[in-house]
Structure formats: C-alpha cells, structure tokens
Amino acid sequence: MDAGRRIETALDAAVAHLEAPGAPPRLAEALRYAVFPGGHRIRPRLCLSVARACGDDDPAAADAAAAAIELLHCASLVHDDLPCFDDAPMRRQKASVHVAFGEPLAVLTGDALIVAAFETLARGAARHPQRLAALVGLVARAAGSPAGIVAGQAWESEPYVALSDYQQAKTGALFAASTVAGAAAAGAQPLPWRLLGECLGEAYQCADDLRDVACRQEEIGKPAGRDATLGRPNAAALLGTDGALERLKRLTREAIEVIPDCPGADTLRAEIEAQTRLFLPKSLANLVSA
Amino acid sequence: MDAGRRIETALDAAVAHLEAPGAPPRLAEALRYAVFPGGHRIRPRLCLSVARACGDDDPAAADAAAAAIELLHCASLVHDDLPCFDDAPMRRQKASVHVAFGEPLAVLTGDALIVAAFETLARGAARHPQRLAALVGLVARAAGSPAGIVAGQAWESEPYVALSDYQQAKTGALFAASTVAGAAAAGAQPLPWRLLGECLGEAYQCADDLRDVACRQEEIGKPAGRDATLGRPNAAALLGTDGALERLKRLTREAIEVIPDCPGADTLRAEIEAQTRLFLPKSLANLVSA
May I ask which residue range the UniProt record assigns to the signal sequence (chains A, B) (predicted)? Predict the structure, then answer.
C-alpha cells in the first residue's frame, strides 16, 4: 500500500473508533469533518518515510505514529481557528469546525482528537510495548508544554517572545515528532532523527509564511494575509518573497544533508524532496525549483 | 507516604515538567493554577486505594495513573467552565481559569493538561511497558469519544440524550478509569474493577446533584443551582433531597459489595467508606450517616 493510502486508512480506523455506537452523533460528525478530507498530510508522510528508511518492521506501529501526529495536527487547527484565537472562518476549503458545528463542539473536537492520538498509539503499537512507551513520550513532548504545539500557541498570549521559540514550538515540534516517532515505531534510535524534523519544520514555516503573503485564498484554502492582520511575525514579510524563497531552498538542502545513515537513505532523500515540493502551491513551487 | 501526599507529590512533579525552562510563563502559571490547590482528589484517591488493594508493587506506576486521572479531571473542569459551556466565574473557591487568565490560555491549559496526563503515564509506568500500554488505553477510553468525559460534555450539544448515557460518560467514565487504572498499575486484571468505579461514579453524580440543589456557594466553591439555570437534569430535583440521599446510600452500599476479591479488600472497604463521605459537604454528609 502506498503512503497516502496507509495514512488515510489509519486515520479512518482511528476516527471510526471515535464514532463507535454510543458516541454523541454531532461530535462524531465534527470529528470526521475535522480530519477528512485532509491537506497534504505532510507530517504523517514524513513519519512513514522515516519508518520505511529504518526498516518498517512493524507497519501497524508506524501507521499509528503517523495517524497520531496527524490527529494532533488536526486538533491544533480546530482550536487555533476558534474565535478566541484566529477566529478563522475557513480551513481546507470549507467552513472551520466552530462555524460548521458551533464553538462548544469545536472545543470538544480538539480535545477528543488529542485523546485519540494517544489511544491510536496504544492500539497500534501494542505489539512492541517498549516502542509504545517511547512513542507516547515523544508525541506528548511535541504536543504539550513546555515546547510542543500547545506551548507554541500559548506564546501568542505572552507580551514578549523570541520568534525562534514560537516557531520551534508551534511548527517545529510536530515535524521533529514526525521523524523521531517514525524511527521509534521501526525500533530505531529516535534521537538522531530530530535534526531532520527540525530542519523540515523550519522550511515548512518559511513556506507557510510565503503562502500567507504571496497566495490568494483559493490557492491555500484559508484566508491569506492573516499574519499581517493578526500582527504575527512572517519570514516573507521580513525577507521579501525572494529572500524567503532562498531561505526555503537552503533549509531543504540542509534537511537532505542531515539524514542519518540508514538502510533506506537514498529513497528517503527522494521522498523528502518530493514532500517539500508540497509545502508550496504550484505557482510558488516553480520558483523554488527554478 | 499517605495517599494525599503521594497524589500531591505526583501532581507537583507532573506540573513541574510542564513549567520546565522554555515554557511560556503565563501558560505555566495557568497550568499550576488549574491543578493546585485541588478539591478532595477523590478520583486519584480511589485509584491509589485500588492499587494498594492489588499489592501496589510499582508505586510509581500507581502514582502516575492517579495523577493522570486527576490531570484529565482538571482539564475537563477548565474547559467546562469556558464561556461557550457553563460560563462559570468560580471554581474551587477562586476565579475560574478563563476569568483569571483569559479564554485563549484556558483552552490551551485544558489541552496541555490532557497531553500531560499521557506524558505522566509514559514517564511513571516506564518500568512495566505492558502495563503502560493498558493504562494509556484505559485512560484514553475514559477521556475521549465515544464514551469518555469529552463525549459526556458533547451530549449537552445534542437535542436528545438518555440521562444515563450522559452521566455515565460525563462522570462515570473517569471513576471507572480510576479503579481499572489502579488495578492495571499494580499488574492486576483491570476489568473486574470496572463495576466498583461505575457504582462510585453514580454515587458521586447523585451527591453532586444534591450539592447543587441543597448547598450554598460558599460550601461548594462554585455557584449553586447551576443545573436548574442551565436546564440540566438533576437527581435531587427529580427525587427530592430525601430521595436523592436514599439513592446515594444505596449506591455506596452497592459499591462496597462489588469490590472484587483481592489481598487488601478489608482496608479498601474502609477507605471507600471514608472517601464517599467526602462526596458531600458536612451539612449533608451527616444526613447520610444518620
């Protein structure tokens, strides 16, 4: 099965558990709405690529890790879109969850997806409890406080923040989790894989800033120009479009260079090059490969 | 160390990890505010009592299970108090988290506490990965969808709900998790312990309804009469104070009767009798023991 199919199948199984008989019907509907259809599934693709590069000897564990990371990402999107944060009306070309289902169910959808991430790990990595223990710790670290995505979002409530702390927590942590969890799911040492995830997280952040500044809403499925509206730092606004594109190219090269020795390193390199092309919509991606 | 000290120590260690260097300071402050000072810590006490009744051969695992359950309970209080749910101004004799820290940090505090519950399990139960696997699954089941506390809260967004489904998910699930997780942490079969937790969950719900109807705000640390204001079902309103007190007595007796065979059954019986007395403020508790 190719990576895309594996990811959608794993996410579908995870969401199906949440919708089991007895679930409140509107919550169940909101949970599926928040997860499907997805974006490019960049983080779980990265996770599976690393797992395969490390031998992928327990595909159920790798699928669970990939799904858990995407569930956390979806949870963070639902909560970040809430009126008390970005008050975003749209996400992935459709109404955001609180617009479609109301604020109470949007809060609960995010909560349930966070829980589901860990439940998915427990179910999928049960064959190797030692790996499960590592995975729960690695994924939790990327999600919570002091340095996960929740902490990243919380920096927006602080009067002073170092841009790098903010971006590392808000974006970098989940990319780093994607690579280390992919390795851990396959029984490899996770730590050497962190740097690759961090480089790709920075590259993605840079691409996201470019999309916000240089694209129209139809291309990115959510309102453009939000960083300026919300007074948030943006690499493309600071460096200009060309400067940000240059930075993105450099970070992508760096990522390729820091791939640890592993059985599937060559394939992994090619996959990461393909995945980073998904960071930008076509109009901008052509400029990077130029 | 007595149970109360074990619980506060375990919670303090869990929160200290969330406040580690690099954490956003206001989030860190809100996290500690949401967990300390606590209420009666009824659920973690129950968890530790069951673990001890089952031999408590890995106290770190039992402490982690107890802390994880209390962290989830605190998370649910923070989110339930939000303006889009109960809009509660007070909790545990002080301003609720969104009043003290604002709505964005209240959402994130709940999120971070959910994550912390699983991180605490991963850290504390590392010596027995097989038990950790069981604990993550049991705790997740009590927290999320289809039948955990998040689902319980989501029933409030449905046009029709069976009262038993609502109360079982909103209150019963975490009590059931307290007993099964206590057993699992000590290496015992968790399933036989579910019924005890469910009985105590029903008893607690009945006591909570009594407190809402029959107590003043100063006694319970939050506004009284909220169920009537919010149009929620309440056993004391349905059965009258005497009827609800009778039901509470019966449920407590049932709980004592369904304790599974275990090395520490006698001590456990006494502990549960003491713990159920904490369900009500003194003015009402005297009526139950009368």
Answer: none
Determine, for residues A136 and B132 on separate chains, whether the beta-carbon distance falls below 8 Å: yes
Q: How far apart are CA B129 and CA A240, in angstroms?
A: 50
Q: Chain A residue closest to B143 (CA)?
A: A115
Q: A16: exposed, middle or buried (C-beta count within 10 Å: 0-12, 13-18, 19+)? A: exposed
Q: In terms of Cα–Cα distance, which of A12, A47, A42, A36 is closest to A138?
A: A47
- Residue A284's domain comprises 3-289
Q: With beta carbons less than 8 A apart as the criterion, state whether A27 and A109 touch.
A: yes
- pLDDT by residue (tens digit) across B203-255? 999 998 888 888 777 777 777 788 888 777 788 888 888 999 999 999 999 99
Residue A289's pLDDT is what? 59
Cα–Cα distance between A42 and B284 in angstroms, integer? 56
CA distance B192 to A242: 64
Instruction: Copy the structure tokens of residue A140.
Output: 């939790």
Q: How far is B213 from chain A (nearest CA, A)?
A: 25
Q: How far is CA B245 from CA A238, B211, B214, B253, B287, in A?
A: 66, 11, 11, 13, 8
Say if B71 is an interface residue toward chain A (CB within 8 Å): no
Mean pLDDT over each residue of chain A, to the nearest integer: 93
Q: Which residue of chain B is at minimal alpha-carbon distance from A19?
A: B146
Q: Note whether A115 contacts B20, CB cutoff 8 Å.
A: no
Contact call for A104 and B111, based on CB within 8 A: no
Quick one: CA dihedral B192, B193, B194, B198, positive or negative? positive
Nearest to B133 among A129, A151, A161 (CB): A129
Q: Enter the ipTM.
A: 0.95
Q: For chain B, first and last CA: distance in Å?
A: 32
Q: Chain A, 119-148: which have a CB under 8 Å from a chain B CB?
A: 119, 121-123, 125-126, 129-130, 132-133, 136-137, 140-141, 143-148
Residue found by looking up tokens 């969850």 in the block: A97
Residues in chain A within 8 Å Cβ distance of B105: 154, 157
CATH of the domain at A190: 1.10.600.10
Overall number of domains in chain B: 1
Interchain proximity B144–A19, CB inside 8 Å:
no
Backbone angles phi, psi at A99, to 5 degrees: -70, -40
